[in-house]
Write a structure and sequence with these properties.
Length: 69
Amino acid sequence: MKNIIILLKKLRCRIKWSDDDDDDDGEYERKEEERKEGRKKKEKEEEKNEEKKKEEEEEEKKKDGMIQD
């Protein structure tokens, strides 16, 4: 039981130290912001591509409708 308590204390210290290191650099926050921005850009591009595909399909349907008439 004592061994477990000692291990948990050591683990808490390691976690605390690793958190302090990340806060000092600010690098983690910057990378996270970059990831978020990248995701937003990808989502916007995907939406634009979907809109273009829908427009193209509608144009093709209109052309097909005109030819069949």
